[in-house]
Design brief:
The protein is an alpha/beta fold and about 375 residues long. Helices cover about 30% and strands about 15% of the residues. An eight-stranded parallel β-barrel has the order 1-2-3-4-5-6-7-12, surrounded by five helices. A two-stranded antiparallel ribbon has the order 8-9. Strands 10-11 form a two-stranded antiparallel sheet. The radius of gyration is 21 Å and the shape is globular.
Length: about 375
C-alpha cells in the first residue's frame, strides 16, 4: 500500500472511524472515485490496487472528457486540505497552478509528488507570456541585453528576423527548463490579447508561431515527451499553424448562460484552425470553464444555464453535460472545469468537499 505522505493532516480518531465505516467495503470501481462519501479524504484502507486502477482510468483521457481547474493559494499545508493538491477529488484529471509555482517549499514538493505519483493528477504551471522575457529577464537587464533584441524595433505583424527568432526561442527554452526542473507535467499559457493581455509577443501571431514551435520541442503532442502544452483564454486568437502543438484549448466561458453560446464559441475556434485541425480534433481539445472566484458561483455552481433539452441548470453542470453540436454534427469535447477550484472546497449545505466538481465529473463520464 502507498504510504500516506508525511504532511497529511492528522485527523481526530473519531473522524477516522466514521470515514472508515463509509469505506469499509470499498470497491475499486470508478464510481467510488466520484462518490461524495468515499471521497471526503484519502481514508486509511485505500489499497495500492485502488490507486493503480485510478491511474489506469485516468490514462483513458483520449476516449472521455476530463476534469480541470485552476488551483490557487497552494501551500501544501494547513488545518484543512483546501491548500493541498492531495485534497482534490481522486478522480480529478488536471489542474493548473494559478499563482506562485516557481518558489517551491518542501511541503509543496511532497504534495505535488504525491498527487502525481499516487493519484495520477496532471499539474501544469500557468503563466502569461505577453512580452518576450516576462518573468524570466534577470533584474538589472533589459530585454535587448538579455534576449538579444528590442521588440519595438519591428511591427507586430512582421515576420521575425533570425535574431528575433533566436530571442523568442531562448525565452521559450527558459520557461521549459524551469518547468521541467520543478517537476510539473506541462505548461498552460494564459493567452488573452484582446482582454487586457496584449503585448509584444501575445499580440503578434508571427512571433507567437515561433514561440509555440520552440515550446513544442518540450511540451505537447509534437514533443514526444508526454508533457502537456495548453493554451487558455483565447485559443481562437492563436496562429492556426500552432493548433497541432497543443493538447488542450481551455476556454474561459465565464457567466455562460446557454448551450448555444458554447456551440458558438467552439465554432469560432474550429474556424480558426480550419485546414490544420479537423472539427473533431478541435472539439476534443476544447475545455470550457466557469469562474468560481465569483462568490455567487462557488456557492451555487454558477449562472442559470439553458440546456439543449429546454431545462435549466447551473452553468458548471451545464458545461459538463454539454454535448457540442456544430453544423448538425455532434462532437466529444475535451472536458470542463473552473477557475479557483479551491473556492468550492467546502460549500454550505453541500456534503463532502468539491461538490460541484464531483457532480461535473459524474455528468461527463456517466458510463464509468
Amino acid at each position: 500500500m502507498f504510504k500516506l505522505i508525511e504532511y497529511k493532516i492528522m485527523r481526530k480518531l473519531i473522524k477516522y472511524i466514521t470515514l472508515a465505516l463509509f469505506s469499509c467495503c470499498f470497491a475499486v470501481s470508478c464510481n467510488d472515485w466520484t462518490d461524495v462519501e468515499a471521497e471526503i479524504i484519502d481514508v486509511p484502507g485505500k489499497s495500492e490496487e485502488y490507486y493503480a486502477n485510478l491511474r489506469t482510468w485516468k490514462a483513458t483521457y483520449a476516449e472521455r472528457q476530463i476534469s480541470f481547474g485552476w488551483f490557487g493559494g497552494w501551500t501544501g499545508v494547513g488545518s484543512s486540505m483546501v491548500s493541498s493538491l492531495a485534497g482534490l477529488p481522486d478522480s480529478m484529471d488536471m489542474v493548473s497552478i494559478w499563482g506562485d509555482w516557481i518558489n517551491q517549499t518542501e511541503a509543496k514538493i511532497k504534495d505535488l509528488q504525491y498527487a502525481q505519483k499516487v493519484k495520477g493528477l496532471k499539474v501544469l504551471a500557468c503563466s502569461f507570456t505577453e512580452n518576450v522575457g516576462d518573468g524570466f529577464t534577470p533584474d538589472g537587464k533589459t530585454v535587448k541585453e538579455y534576449w538579444g533584441w528590442d521588440p519595438s524595433e519591428s511591427n507586430l505583424n512582421d515576420e521575425p528576423t533570425d535574431t528575433q527568432k533566436e530571442g523568442i526561442r531562448k525565452y521559450a527554452r527558459a520557461i521549459a527548463e524551469t518547468i521541467n526542473s520543478l517537476g510539473y507535467d506541462g505548461f498552460d499559457i494564459d493567452h488573452e490579447p484582446n482582454y487586457g493581455g496584449a503585448g509584444d509577443l501575445a499580440s503578434s501571431r508571427p512571433r507567437l508561431k515561433v514561440f509555440i514551435e520552440e515550446l513544442g520541442k518540450y511540451f505537447g503532442p509534437k514533443s514526444g515527451t508526454g508533457k502537456i502544452l495548453a493554451v487558455d483564454g483565447e485559443p481562437q486568437s492563436m496562429h492556426a499553424d500552432s493548433g497541432p502543438y497543443f493538447d488542450w484549448f481551455i476556454v474561459q466561458a465565464y457567466d455562460c448562460t446557454s448551450y448555444t453560446n458554447l456551440n458558438s464559441r467552439l465554432k469560432t475556434t474550429i474556424r480558426n484552425y480550419e485546414g490544420v485541425l479537423t472539427p473533431q480534433e478541435v472539439a476534443k481539445k476544447y475545455i470550457v470553464t466557469e469562474n468560481f472566484e465569483k462568490a455567487a458561483y462557488n456557492t451555487t455552481g454558477g449562472a442559470n444555464f439553458l440546456q439543449e433539452d429546454g431545462t435549466y441548470t447551473k452553468s458548471f453542470a451545464g458545461m459538463a453535460a454539454w454535448e457540442p453540436l456544430v453544423n448538425n454534427v455532434r462532437y466529444l469535447k475535451g472536458g470542463s472545469g473552473v477557475y479557483h477550484i479551491e473556492y468550492e472546497y467546502s460549500v454550505p449545505g453541500k456534503a463532502g468537499f468539491y461538490p460541484f466538481t464531483r457532480e461535473a465529473i459524474r455528468l461527463m463520464n456517466p458510463k464509468y
